[in-house]
Amino acid sequence: MPIANCKRCQRIFNKTRRDICPDCIAEEDAAFVAVRAYLREHKDATMAQVTEDTEVEIGIIISLIQDGRLILRDNPNLTYPCARCGAPTQAGRYCADCAKELTHELSVARTRLQKDGQGDAKRIGFYSKP
Q: What NCBIfam families does this protein's entry cite (predicted)?
């Protein structure tokens, strides 16, 4: 097993599937249970209210959302900033507008790369002497 530093506490541990140590995984699981129970009772809570009442850090709540463990479809007031523009979002790293823009930019870049590479289509492969 590879040895790694925990992403959260920086302790050395035997890395398995996750980037955090078993102690931090246990803390994250406890935080998940606390936040999920709180959100079931308080559907209109904001991020500040959840953090204050559950004593779970905002970063942990956001990572639970981004990892797909916490789904906010029933909690309309629970948002966090988009990683690109700072607009409020409820899922993923980017808001809907930024995700759409990035998708468009990537498709334009892919099209441009495909056009640039068409002249090289005959050169694909390798040459060997008979």
A: YvyF
Which pair of structure tokens corresponds to residue 105?
A: 């930019």
Contact present, 97 and 87 (Cβ < 8 Å): yes
Mean pLDDT of the chain: 88
With cut-offs at 50, 70 and 90, classify the pLDDT of residue 125.
low
Going 90 to 96 to 101 to 104, the CA torsion angle's sign is: positive
Long-range contacts of 74-81 (CB under 8 A, 24+ apart): 74/39, 74/43, 75/39, 75/43, 75/44, 75/45, 76/44, 77/44, 77/45, 77/46, 78/39, 78/45, 78/46, 78/47, 78/50, 79/47, 80/47
In Å, the largest CA–CA distance within the chain is 76
Comparing 70 with 130, the larger pLDDT belongs to 70
**119: Cα within 13 Å, side-chain hemisphere:** 3
Rg of the chain, C-alpha, whole Å: 22
Instruction: Give the angle subtended at the CA of 63 by the CAs of 3 and 44, to the nearest 5°.
Output: 160
Reading the block at residue 5, the tokens are 């530093």
CA 83 to centroid of chain Cα atoms: 10
